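Long-time lurker, first post. I've been practising inverse folding by hand and with some scripts of my own, and I keep getting stuck on stretches where the structure tokens seem ambiguous. Below is the full token string for one chain I'm working on. Before anyone asks, I'm not after the true native sequence, just a reasonable design that respects the backbone. If someone could post their per-position residues I'd love to compare against what I wrote down in my notebook.
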């Protein structure tokens, strides 16, 4: 298959020279693991101490990886991306909330995004995290098969009602909803609840998507078993496929608590599992819709090649490619230029509430050195191309 991801003129067309300079600065920092750790600690301290750093954060890391502080803020970014046929998944990214009023607020935010999406074809999905709608501890107790107290049972009923409120509205508007995956020790409860929503709303078309994290060695078996249950019960599967976002935390907890590490032995094993899951879903498209969340070029080429061999149109509605805003533009924009369905996760929210997300993003990039180096190489290549273009 022809290689397309080196075309920086297409990939970075929307970035001004100053935005390229900022991206270069940020990825140079992210490449240095000690600086990321120090920067994360200093940022957390500064925000906790109410030091006046939000403006600095907003003009650097926040504006590179986020769409804005609210939905209206994001519209400018959404319109820019739409000019290149790249769609947006508005992601309210405030993390670590544990109060009922905050969960209700997250539900209202998601419903509001659904209203935006209903009127805007540039927003083809909505998204939420399970722990955005209820306490982590409730999911954990259910996953570990521990009994809930009476008050916790009431909380779980409320969590299910929140899921249903969003999924029923998504069904009414025919707008798919992506439900993120989180840590393994709470995920089984979330999986079961998402499957319940699939069974209810995915009879004719795929509205509800779960997320499969390929760095977990058990996930391909989970997918195959889910597929068998879906065929038996008569519903379709929506699945966002990613590599995963909590590796270090997962390994540390498994070691500390003396249970088998749920993460694949190495990155190669993760890559193999990801690609096997891709193949399985492409081979079962009549039952499964796929949102391939990946910053990996090989997996992207594999999916493109499989679609071509199966005679699928590039814009087949059952297959989407997804990347995070601020990352892998060389994949997103070159894919969209070829006619594939592409959506970028566009995080938003108050600066201090989104910082846990941004810190996690920086730490993940540090742990994948090749990816950061690739970003830097492409930015430098485009800067050089523009200099030569101006001199001619």
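-- Answer (accepted) --
I ran through it position by position. Result:
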């Amino acid at each position: 298959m022809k290689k397309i991801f080196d075309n920086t003129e297409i990939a970075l067309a929307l970035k001004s020279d100053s935005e390229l300079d900022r991206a270069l600065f940020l990825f140079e920092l992210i490449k240095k693991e000690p600086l990321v750790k120090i920067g994360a600690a200093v940022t957390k301290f500064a925000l906790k101490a109410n030091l006046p750093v939000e403006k600095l954060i907003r003009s650097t890391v926040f504006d590179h990886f986020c769409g804005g502080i609210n939905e209206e803020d994001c519209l400018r970014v959404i319109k820019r991306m739409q000019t290149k046929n790249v769609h947006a998944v508005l992601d309210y990214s405030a993390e670590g909330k544990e109060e009922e009023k905050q969960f209700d607020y997250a539900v209202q935010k998601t419903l509001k995004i659904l209203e935006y999406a209903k009127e805007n074809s540039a927003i083809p999905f909505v998204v939420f995290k399970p722990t955005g709608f209820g306490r982590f501890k409730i999911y954990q107790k259910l996953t570990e098969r521990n009994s809930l107290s009476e008050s916790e049972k009431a909380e779980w009923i409320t969590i299910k009602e929140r899921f249903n409120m969003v999924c029923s509205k998504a069904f009414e508007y025919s707008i798919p909803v992506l439900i993120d995956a989180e840590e393994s020790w709470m995920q089984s409860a979330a999986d079961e609840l998402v499957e319940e929503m699939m069974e209810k709303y995915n009879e004719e078309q795929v509205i509800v998507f779960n997320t499969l994290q390929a760095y977990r060695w058990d996930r391909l078996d989970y997918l195959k078993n889910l597929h068998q249950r879906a065929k038996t019960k008569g519903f379709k599967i929506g699945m966002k496929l990613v590599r995963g976002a909590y590796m270090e935390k997962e390994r540390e907890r498994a070691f500390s608590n003396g249970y088998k590490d749920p993460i694949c032995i190495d990155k190669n094993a993760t890559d193999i599992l990801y690609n096997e899951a891709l193949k399985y879903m492409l081979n079962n498209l009549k039952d499964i819709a796929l949102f391939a969340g990946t910053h990996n070029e090989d997996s992207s080429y594999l999916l493109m090649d499989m679609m071509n061999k199966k005679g699928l149109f590039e814009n087949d509605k059952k297959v989407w490619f997804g990347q995070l805003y601020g990352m892998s533009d060389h994949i997103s924009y070159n894919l969209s230029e070829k006619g594939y369905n592409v959506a970028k996760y566009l995080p938003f929210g108050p600066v201090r509430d989104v910082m846990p997300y941004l810190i996690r993003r920086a730490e993940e990039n540090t742990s994948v050195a090749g990816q950061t180096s690739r970003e830097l190489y492409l930015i430098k290549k485009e800067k050089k191309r523009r200099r030569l273009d101006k001199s001619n």
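A couple of notes from the structure itself: The radius of gyration is 21 Å. The chain has one domain: 51-368. Happy to go over any region you disagree with.
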